[in-house]
Design goal:
five-stranded mixed β-sheet, 13 helices
Length: 534
């Protein structure tokens, strides 16, 4: 059951599009989680800056170092050492930490502890072809100000350039390692300067394991784990939603199809599906609708054929019964001696004519039933249709003349080839023309015109006689149309039905023109295919 509709995508395209949307949604959500996580991690890390440790300033200044939450402030496995103004150790959070004797100069070269601090070292060769090392130290001070120190030294650690003049011309090996944060192999060393409650200057040395990174790194790692855990939960929820959606998309047309099949199996033949969705499912539903419509039409045709079969049997019985009844009656009259010798000749003549009519009727039934057989075929041969039609009309001339008909024949003098069965095509024309002769009176004008067309030849067979009633014109080619539905109350009613089958067997068509041309009362139009001459 085809219908005009907008073009729809197929199921594969639908899956791809939704998969792309699904993937983009995941990327957007993961990016959002990551940005939020990094923001939170950065905020937490910034809060770990010593300048922001307001809740712990009193603890530090009062010397209650054991009360400091080191893991929260600096990260996991961090140790601290507190030196007084004379650089003597006054507190160690871990007794295993060895504290070298640092000089004041060396203490100055230890980087400040601050979140986001880093040391960048680069080796290069100067214009004198000397190997040099550039050391950049970045750290955040006073919340926003970036403290940047730059040193350039040669292979012997002589200072070639320093961003802040300290009066020193070279660095010791220990000072170089402190600046570059390579003093310890497994720890990063930074410092935090503060004053105690008495105003004395103290220095806190902070030892951070290299494998744990700085506090920012630990915060980022922790937040990354949280982000991916949250994302995994969201991903599972989204997968469940996607599966439910996909299940609905697939199950909906299948459920419609299943319900329609159940109704169909219960005897409901006019079951049609109205579904809009992926193209494949629409095509399946349309195929089902087409099948349902064809089966319904087939069922209706079967009922009609059954009805026609019953009508045919009744018509045949009626057509055979009438002459047989007459023959039986007349024969019985002769047999019983109820007919005089003078009347017997008349009775025998009537019996003979009725038997002739009966034979003709049976032959017509036989020819019609033969045409209904699937193995029936015509003996087609290439022939000039103009010559065939002229010869046929010439043979019929005397019959028309005796009936008082006038003829108008217009057949072109040209060669037009068509594949025809001469015997059967002649029978088709006989049935049409005999009807015209039988049912019209003297003075009727009979017309036969042939028009060559591009692929077909058109033959008009018409007369200006009594015509055909409009209410029976639609059934005129149906078998057994007699009595009230035909121009005749005699005959089998198979003549035009046989003519139609013969002409359609030639690949052509026959129709009753309604309304006919103004010059005619009855007009038949016959089309026969033309064969191109080679």
């Amino acid at each position: 059951m085809k219908s005009k509709k907008r073009k729809r995508g197929n199921f594969f395209t639908l899956l791809i599009c939704n998969y792309i949307v699904f993937t983009l949604l995941l990327v957007i959500v993961l990016s959002a989680f990551f940005v939020i996580g990094m923001f939170v991690a950065g905020r937490n890390a910034m809060q770990a800056n010593p300048d922001r440790f307001l809740p712990y300033k009193d603890i530090i200044s009062e010397g209650r170092y054991e009360d400091m939450p080191l893991n929260k402030m600096f990260g996991k496995d961090v140790s601290i050492v507190v030196l007084n103004e004379k650089l003597q150790c006054v507190y160690k959070s871990n007794s295993e930490v060895e504290v070298p004797n640092f000089s004041e100069d060396e203490i100055e070269y230890i980087p400040l502890y601050t979140v986001g601090a880093y040391v960048y070292k680069e080796e290069f060769v100067n214009e004198k072809n000397e190997k040099c090392t550039s050391i950049s130290v970045y750290c955040l001070e006073n919340d926003e100000e970036v403290n940047h120190k730059l040193y350039v030294v040669d292979e012997k650690l002589n200072i070639l350039y320093q961003s802040k003049n300290t009066g020193k011309t070279s660095l010791t090996e220990r000072e170089y390692k402190l600046i570059t944060n390579t003093f310890y192999e497994n720890h990063r060393l930074t410092k935090y300067k503060f004053k105690n409650s008495y105003g004395n200057a103290y220095t806190m040395l902070i030892y951070q394991p290299l494998e744990n990174g700085d506090f920012l790194f630990s915060q980022v790692s922790l937040m990354t784990k949280s982000v991916f855990s949250s994302f995994f939960i969201f991903y599972c929820i989204l997968i469940v939603i996607f599966i439910i959606w996909l299940n609905h998309k697939v199950k909906k047309p299948l459920k419609l199809l299943h319900n329609a099949m159940v109704k169909f199996s219960e005897g409901q033949r006019q079951v049609y599906l109205n579904y809009k969705g992926p193209r494949e499912f629409e095509e399946i539903c349309e195929s089902f609708n087409h099948m349902s419509m064809q089966l319904y039409e087939s069922e209706e045709n079967r009922k009609k054929l059954e009805k026609d079969k019953q009508k045919m049997i009744a018509d045949i019985s009626h057509d055979l019964k009438t002459p047989i009844t007459v023959i039986q009656g007349y024969a019985k009259g002769i047999y019983d001696g109820m007919v005089s010798l003078e009347e017997q000749q008349q009775y025998l003549e009537t019996i003979y004519k009725k038997s002739e009519g009966l034979t003709e009727l049976i032959n017509t039934f036989y020819e019609y039933s033969k045409m209904e057989h699937p193995d029936y075929s015509l003996n087609l041969e290439k022939c000039d249709i103009c010559i065939f039609l002229r010869d046929y009309m010439a043979d019929k001339y005397n019959e028309f003349n005796l009936g008082g008909f006038e003829l108008e024949i217009d057949i072109p003098e040209e060669r037009i080839l068509s594949k025809i069965d001469k015997v059967q095509l002649k029978r088709a024309f006989e049935n049409i023309i005999n009807n015209a002769i039988k049912h019209n009176g003297s003075g009727t004008i009979f017309t036969c015109i042939l028009y060559p067309m591009e692929e077909y030849v058109k033959i008009i067979v018409a007369d200006n006689g009594c015509g055909i009633q409009e209410e029976i014109s639609y059934d005129i080619f149906e078998p057994f149309v007699v009595g009230e539905k035909s121009r005749s109350k005699q005959g089998s009613g198979l003549g035009l039905a046989v003519s139609k089958k013969i002409i359609e067997g030639h690949g052509g068509s026959i129709s009753l023109v309604m309304p006919p041309n103004y010059k005619y009362k009855t007009e038949f139009e016959i089309l026969l295919p033309i064969v191109k001459s080679s």
